[in-house]
Amino acid sequence: MPDPYDDTYTESQVIMTAVKIIAPFTLTYGLFMTFHGGGAPGGGFQGGTIVGVTVLMLAFAFGIEPTRQWLRNSFLVGLITGGVVIFGAIGLGMIALGGNFLEFYQLKEVFHIKPKWGLEAIEIAGISLIVSGVMISLFFSMAAGFSPERPSGTGGREESADRGVSDDD
Q: Where do the record's region annotations for Disordered lie (predicted)?
């Protein structure tokens, strides 16, 4: 009996070549948007999204499983966790300096630097890592799909056949 859940990946030289050409530009643009920061349109969320989409584009062109093996789950978890830790550390650092969570004006009072550098650190080091990691992880999770085997007791067709119940009943 043929497997009804076969892999739908088809190698296309056109798509692979196009992605090889486009991916460096989209990655560069994503990093530009990330480093552009809070001073203008752009920032960590938009840049992280574009970087994540670049990885998704590579997965579509060269196969999801090879890309999943290239970006191990531990790397993606580290990316997300690192972003959350950086975000939290900066926010809690502002509390340690005598302000509120993410109150960047404490940077001016204590270190005599512009408060915008706190926002830049959050956008570049925290949010962009979280967004790109979550986006890639969600894609891999959805691409994994579901297992076609059902646990017993779910009322599946096999269980009905065992009890002598037909679909016509």
A: 148-169
